[in-house]
Amino acid sequence: MALALLANGAGAHELKSAKADFVPPAPGSYRLERIQAVPEGTVLDTSSRSVRLSQYTHGRITLLSLVYTSCSDAGGCPMARYTLQQVRRTLEKRKSIQGRLRFVTLSFDPVHDTPEAMRAYGSSETGRRSAVPWYFLTTASSRDLRPILDGLGQDVRVPADAADAAKAGSLSHTVKVFLIDRDGWVREIYTSSFLVPQVIVNDVHTLLLEDGVNIH
After folding, report:
1. pLDDT digits (tens, 9 = 90+) for 57-114
2. d(Cα 30, Cα 128) in Å, to the nearest integer?
3. CA-CA distance, 91 to 130, in Å (whole number)?
4. Could you give all domains of the chain from N- to C-terminal order, each with its CATH number?
5. Is 120 exposed, middle or buried (0-12, 13-18, 19+ CB in 10 A)?
6. Cα dihedral sign, 201-203-207-212
7. Is 131 exposed, middle or buried (0-12, 13-18, 19+ CB in 10 A)?
């Protein structure tokens, strides 16, 4: 039921983004260093097509979030999604963003998050017109998923006493959203305490300025 509410945009008033206790620096007044290269991997899109992850992490600035659809922690995956919705709605208003930015959500629960499940989960975002496309992906197996998680440093743990923990919404994980430049380098990693919409917007603008794009 929580998934249905979130997918339909209902209950959003119950979610909140992180709040900054500082004034975010202006875009271009700082540099985002290269942190790590995004690992390659094989993923499935919502039509069950097998594609390389690099298809979604190169060529445009990318905001990549890792989730599982049955997450019931309001301060976890639902908050990350809500925050990214706010960021998307802010950025899509800028003409300079056309063709330069994408959002990608990848499940780390391939057992339950099939392509069909990801299509339903992302329907509220893929079903609306936007200058910023949002893709929802999964993998065919945990074997395909593991190199991606390891390469990104994303920890996911299943409690030993809960064989169906993911379905119950209790996978143990750290919320992470990765800001990736168009060459496939991670330039920032946001955890739950730092998922501040204005910070993310300014960081995207900083990478656009780095690429010589007039953001005004």
Report:
1. 999 999 999 999 988 877 789 999 999 999 999 999 998 899 999 999 999 999 999 9
2. 34
3. 10
4. 2-17+51-156+166-210 (3.40.30.10)
5. middle
6. positive
7. middle
